[in-house]
Every structure is written in structure tokens, then in C-alpha cells.
Amino acid sequence: MNIHEYQAKELFDRFQVPSPKGKVASSPEEASAAAKEFAGAKLVIKAQVHAGGRGKGHFKNGFKGGVHLIESPEQAAEFAGKMLNETLVTVQTGEEGRLVRKVMIAEAVDITHEYYLAILMDRATCAPIIVASTAGGMSIEDVAHDTPEKIFRQVVHPLLGLQAYEIRKISAELGLAGDIAKQFGKLLSNLYKLFIQCDCSMLEINPLVTTPDGRVLALDAKFGFDDNALYRHPDIVAMRDKEEEDPREVAASEYELNYIGLDGNIACLVNGAGLAMATMDIIKHYGGEPANFLDVGGGASTEQVTAAFKIILGDPNVKGILINIFGGIMDCNVIAEGVIAAAKETGLPIPLVVRLEGNNVEMGKATLAASGLDIVAADNMADGAQKIVKAVG
Amino acid sequence: MAILIDENTKVLVQGITGSFGARHAQLSLDYGTKLVAGVTPGKGGQKFENVVPIFDTVSQAVNETGATASAIFVPPPFAADAILEAMDAGVELIVCITEGIPVMDMMKVKQALKGSKSRLVGPNCPGLVTPGRGEKSHGGCRIGIAPGYIHKRGNVGVVSRSGTLTYEAVFQLTQMGYGQSTCVGIGGDPINGTSHLDVLEMFNNDPETEAIIMIGEIGGTAEVEAARWAKDNCKKPIAGFIAGATAPPGRRMGHAGAIVGGEEDTAQAKKKILAECGITVAETPSEMASALMIAWGK
Lengths: 393, 298
Fold this sequence. Notes:
Distance between the termini of chain A: 36 Å
Number of helices of chain B: 9
Mean pLDDT of chain A: 92
Structural class of chain A: alpha+beta
Radius of gyration of chain A: 26 Å
Number of strands of chain B: 14
Largest sheet of chain A: 6 strands, antiparallel
Mean pLDDT of chain B: 95
Shape of chain A: globular
Order of helices and strands of chain B: EHEEEHEHEHEEEEHEHEHEHEH
Strand content of chain B: 15-25%
Number of helices of chain A: 13
Largest interface: A-B, 51 and 61 residues
Largest sheet of chain B: 7 strands, mixed
Radius of gyration of chain B: 18 Å
Oligomer: heterodimer
């Protein structure tokens, strides 16, 4: 789940992680009021979408740039009018772009130095790890590749939490001293609290900046949350913006289906995440392109299979479907009946190959064969993948 | 022999009265597993299917029945507590089936397990099966949710993060006439109790296991560490498969741990390292058993 920039700012404010002043606005009037509130400071207006590359993007109405310096409240209102309810296209949004529903009016800060600071859940040590670098403002992957000596890592003990000496160590590695080091220590300590208390999987500040007037500020942040822990964070769940997500994935999540849209033309419907990944792989192996990842889980109902069918058929790129079920405990005949019910409801305009294996498989296959539907049966995964690849041509 | 569990292992189920736990407790009983106790707080004194005594706490269950292994089916918010309770009661093998436990909870549990006498398998795993010698492998020990009947007693050890891919491999083996010593599902979460390497070591030391299938996926370095260990230490032939070659970077593919993080943990990179370490890598999931036959010279 992703959040907007203004929502990240809300979390920073709540945990007292200093960031530039800012206010969200949904109308030109609100934008103008926010600009008045911050009068005296240099200000920017920023379109709020989940995609990066906003500054260099363009609006479909011809307006250039999703980030602008603003000189006055009147200009804030004028630019907000050109951005709000307009579609912003950036390198990350694709041609369709994203509708801008909110803008943020924020303080434009002068920068003395840019740093990188992140906290991640590290699999290797099963502990939080803090990553810091003096090379801020650029991709950390590039820094790791070109100048690995500029990256400092500190593993935090999972039960003890972040210690004062660890903060001093990181601060020293970044070459911070005096009041700046003190401010940094407070910021990192609060950031760690935010990471733990909000069940984050990743929290990346790039850049973290020092300013000529002696402040330490988190300028841009990226949050990752542990989906498994969202049940205990209704406030974070409320930040979810479904408009920013793939509508197919939103529809799937309503039926507790695990769906991820891809660019290919062969849809697959599988039980189990590992088998679903492997099914995508085998489609590719035989020369096809998977259109999605879809795990219907171990106990899929007829309703879920029907919903899955509708989502698959709603993707105009899809030219064929491969169903791959290993019904270990599940009765294959129940699955067969679910598939038939779904196909009858949605129609079957494209080729469908079904590979069924497991419990009561003979009955399941017989049910499919007797359905009168144009379903191609497959003997195993390889056979199924080859048949669907051939069918879509 | 086999590893971790055999037909004599006494098993308890935490969360035996929930619908998921009850269903699989029944299937384990049907399989011939020595299921000796259930635990559901507040239902102590009752019986599961009129046979298996239910206790309020894991320590009562262990003291009364001598159970040494536990299967956990409790919902995610309570699962970490259930694992710690089993550890506290001295359960040697804790198998956590529950999917969806917060990572922060598992981080703490993992620390707490250090220095204890308990081994955790999972969470988010299908569990373990040591097939029995009876018809359709009846009489074996089944802990978790795997379909017992596809197994056959034999000499191949199977270790995997994914449930359905394990079943696929087991089914392929059984169809070719090769049985399994023990099948271990270690689970699809980023933090788990038992690694591929741990299981390879056990298979290497188990006289009944002659060959091994190791199934992995994108995310993390566990398969790579296991392969590097095996290169120098494992005396037995290994076939491997890595799922997720077509997964887009940065997306979680169902399993919380199945996510391509960087250049190092793509499926292609892992397959390459497995092959360099002498593991026969199956090109497709349809060829896991046949890859093993090549490695094994059968």
C-alpha cells in the first residue's frame, strides 16, 4: 500500500519528524489560503499522485509540470486551478496519466547538504536495519553500485530497540556535529518510533537535508507498510487511495483474491502463490506472456472463481486463460463446477485450458467434459502451458 | 528414520476448534497421525470428535499427553502468542500454519526462540509429512494442511517455501514411483523459523534420505545460502526449482516474502548460483522430479 506525500507529512508531524511546512488543498481557494498562511516563505505547489517524475510531467490540458514555485496566494490558486481534477502524465504513470485530486502547498527549502536515511526490515538478520549515506538525493542503488563505501549500515536489536550509541555512530559516520547532530539524533529516534509503531516494512528519506538556517529536514519520503499488520492500523488503512491503484487489483482484493496485473495476454488462475508464480514462469518458458498473477487460495468458492473470471475477462489484452489447480484437499469437482458456473455467467469468448489434478480429479474432469463448454483439458502443467500458448497463437 | 517427525510423534493442535484447525486435525487423524491433544483456551475438558482431549493451555496438554510437536492454526493476531506459549511449554517442534502474521511479531518471536529447545517451522507454511507405510501412505505423521494421500514412503527429501509447489513435486515423484522420507514446507514469510539450509543439513544426516528436492522462490537469500552450504557439505544429489522468473520487481507475489528486492535475488540469479553449486535446476515446475532423476542417476 502506498500513501501520498501529504499523508507522509501527516505521519511525520505526528511523530515529530521535522519536514518542510506544508498543507494539502483540494480547491484553488484552499491553496490560496495555505499560501497566505505560509506568507514570507518561498513556496511550491505539488500535485498529489502516487507516481514519481511529477516535476517533469505534463497535464493533458497542456499545463506543464506537476511541481511549481509560487510567488503569491493568487498564483497558488491559479496553478491549483490548472492541476486539480486534471490528468497528470509522468514517466511512471503511462500514457493514461493520473487524475490529480489534491495539491500540496509546501515550503521550498534551501539546501546545504543532502543525505540518505532509511530504515528497513532486514531479512538476513531478522531485525530492523538503518541505512545512511552522505550521498543523498540520488538513487541509493547507484550509490551502492558506484561508491559502496559511502553507505553505512546499523542493525538494531529487535528487542532492545534503537540505542543512543547507535545514533551517535550513525551521526558520526555522516560527519554531523554540534546542533545539527543533536537535531539529527532526535529526528532518527522519532523516525524509528514511527517505523516500529506503524509496522513499516520500509521508510526511506531521500534526501534528508541540512539548510543554511541550521535545520535538519526530511524532504522526501517513501513508506512501505507490512500488509499483514494493517489490521491494527485503521488510521493507515484510511490513507489508502484506491483511485491510485490498478482497478483490477482493487476488484480482486474485494473478493480476497491475490491478483497482480501484468502486460501479457495469457491470463492464469491458480491455487497457491508458489504454483501461481510457477504457472506464469512456465507460460513464459513456452513462449507466451502472462497477463497476471492470480492466487485464488486454498479454499476458493464459486463466487471467488466467478469474480476472478470477470476480472480476467475485463482485461482487453487477455486472449486466453489457463487454469491450473492442484486440488490437494479441495475437491476438484467443486472447482470444476465453479469454473462452469463462472464461464456460463460471463460467457467464454476466448480459449480456456484447464489443468486439474488432485482430490476427485476424475469426477472434476468428467464434469468439465460434460459441460458443453469449449474447454481444453490438459494433463499436466507443461501440457497446459503449451496448449494455451498455441491457442492464443 | 526420516527427519523431525515419524509415525510415533505425538502431536497437539493449537486452535483445534476453529473451522480450519478442526478440518485439518480430522484429516491428520484419518491419515493415522498420533494426534493426542488439542488446545483452545476456554474449552478445556471437552473432546475433539469424541476422541482427542482439549486443554486450556499448551503446558497442560504437554504434561497430560507427552506431545512433542504442535501445529498452530490460530488467527494471525494471536499466532505469535501461540508460538511463544508452545515454546514455554517445551514443545520441541512448533509448526505454524497461520498466514498473515505481522513481521514485527515474527521478529520478536525469532529472538525469543534463540536459546530455547524449540524448533519453529513456518509460519505461513503447509507443514510436514513423513509418509506412512500403509495404503495411500496411511499411518504416517501429517502436521499441517498437505494432502496426505499424494505421498508415498520412500527416500526423497522435499523442502519448499510454497505449499502447492511442494504438492506438485511430491505428486510428480510418487507418480514416477519414488517415495519421500519427509516433506517440509518452511513457509513463504520473510522471517521464518527453519531455513532451507537447516532442512538440507537434516536430510544430509538422515540415513533414509537418499536424494533431495529443494524448491525456492524470489526474495531473500535463503536458497543461495543453502546451495553454497550444499556445495561443500551435502553428500546427496539435489534438484532445485526457483519460482518467480516472470515476477515484476518490487511486487509482493502472494507470499509476503516473495518479492524481487534487487539484482541478487531474481529467479535467474538464484538458478545460476544453484547450478554453480552442483544442483540440477529444473527449467519448469513440470520437471522437478525428472530433474532429480538426472541428478540421482536414475
